[in-house]
Design goal:
single chain; 443 residues; Rossmann fold; 13 helices
Length: 443
């Protein structure tokens, strides 16, 4: 497909998202809550399709993966063992004049970027959100909203091994909400305090971890390309030694070229055996693996290394919006706005459009709609002219539109299928419609 825009301005994406029902500001009628968003009718379909594509590719279609759903609230000692209570922080500075707060590593001078005032010395600010369990709000009842889904996987390692009899190399995947009290947010849904993660913890025998780390990098890079993301807009950025997390032996980010520059899409980390050893030490429960196929008795028990591909659903959705957005110049000076979504993630797969609201056309169009929507997520639209309806479907990324006209009724019992990207049209008998749509959506 041809894209005419190399860089899409954020205001165009935000405007389209609200106008067409992808993403709304949370609590908007009360002035909104900073950095929180609600997903509208099209947004939730797009989000669900991203989750499903990830789950099918990396969980269901592999025999070395299983799924898990762990609780958002966990025992406070989990976060002590993982290092989050001690190290999960960012350097915070505050302006003495306007009292705006910033991450110290995000500003280049000792003057406030908003008003020029003097800023304070940096202090560490823990990013975990706190709440309380029970009727009394004291330190004994304090718990945290999880900042990542990974720890729910680590503490269930032995449960999963016992229940599934999986042997390394194998992985556990999870999709769920996480929360971080970010100092600075922005760029729409790129960085928010509440977000959804799709994480994998892949357990391997020590010594094979580097090979598996590279393999997961390649698998995810290919997945984004398969979803239609332009390869030239993606790059891999290995972390320098000084920016590695405390648990990481090596981490690489897959980045996307946004309007504001390159930004992290996801990270793939080699977490070594840090997490399992830390939880074993703090809980007193063994979290190693017994391999009865190893001959040397002293080597039968080992703590697996872990490779972690971690991706945010919200960030993946934002990348797909940016990459799909296009403006095409048409004859007569008009501009067509199109979202070139891959059919697998498009919120609406097929639109059924009667040529008009004519009383003869509508019953047949409804019959076609009922036929198609039993197989695909379908939208029926008969408001305004057929040209305007095509443009609406283009703007929300619907790959195919089916038009019912008077020729359908009077001549051939066939309909017209219009392709979103090429705008080419073909005539198809209604008896062959579902199969034809299915073939076209497989691309």
């Amino acid at each position: 497909m041809a894209h005419t825009l190399d860089s899409v301005e954020m205001d165009k994406i935000v405007s389209l998202c609200k106008r067409r029902g992808f993403i709304f500001q949370s609590s908007e009628i009360y002035g909104g809550l900073a950095s929180t968003y609600d997903y509208g009718p099209l947004g939730i379909e797009l989000k669900r399709n991203i989750r499903d594509a990830w789950w099918h590719r990396f969980i269901q279609d592999r025999d070395d993966m299983v799924g898990l759903e762990s609780a958002i609230l966990m025992h406070p000692q989990v976060w002590v063992a993982s290092g989050h209570t001690g190290t999960f922080s960012d350097p915070l500075v505050e302006c003495k004049t306007c009292h705006h707060r910033f991450r110290a590593d995000h500003i280049d001078s000792k003057a406030c970027p908003d008003c020029g005032g003097e800023i304070t010395e940096a202090r560490n600010f823990n990013l975990m959100l706190k709440t309380f369990l029970g009727p009394v709000e004291d330190t004994a009842s304090q718990v945290y909203l999880r900042p990542e889904t990974a720890q729910g996987i680590f503490v269930n390692f032995q449960n999963v091994v016992t229940a599934t009899r999986k042997r390394p190399p194998f992985g556990i995947g999870q999709i769920g909400k996480s929360f971080r009290n970010e100092i600075t947010t922005g760029n729409f849904t790129f960085r928010t305090r509440e977000f959804e993660q799709m994480e994998i913890e892949f357990f391997v025998k020590p010594g094979t971890d580097e090979e598996w780390h590279q393999k997961w990098i390649e698998d995810f890079m290919q997945w984004f390309i398969d979803l239609g993301v332009r390869e030239e807009k993606l790059r891999l950025r290995p972390h320098a030694k000084e920016e590695l997390s405390h648990y990481s032996k090596a981490t690489s980010d897959i980045e996307y070229s946004f309007a504001w520059g390159w930004g992290e899409l996801m990270g793939i980390a080699n977490r070594t055996d840090f997490d399992l050893k830390a939880h074993a030490e703090h809980s007193g429960v063994r979290l190693d693996y017994f391999d009865d196929e190893i001959e040397e008795p002293e080597q039968k028990h080992y703590v697996p290394y872990v490779v972690e591909p971690a991706l945010g659903v919200d960030r993946a959705l934002l990348v797909l919006l940016f990459d799909a957005y296009d403006e095409e110049a048409l004859e007569g000076g008009d501009t067509r706005v199109v979202l070139h979504f891959h059919p697998s993630v498009a919120p609406i797969k097929v639109a059924v459009l009667p040529l008009s609201r004519n009383e003869r056309l509508v019953p047949k169009a409804r019959e076609v709609y009922d036929l198609v929507r039993s197989r695909f997520v379908t939208q029926y639209d008969d408001a305004q002219s057929i040209g305007r309806r095509y443009r609406r479907q283009d703007e929300i990324g619907t790959p195919l539109a089916v038009t019912v006209d008077f020729q359908t009724l009077d001549e051939d019992n066939a309909v017209t299928i219009r392709d979103r990207d090429t705008m080419e049209q073909i005539r198809v008998p209604i008896a062959e419609l579902v199969n034809t749509l299915e073939q076209k959506l497989k691309r």
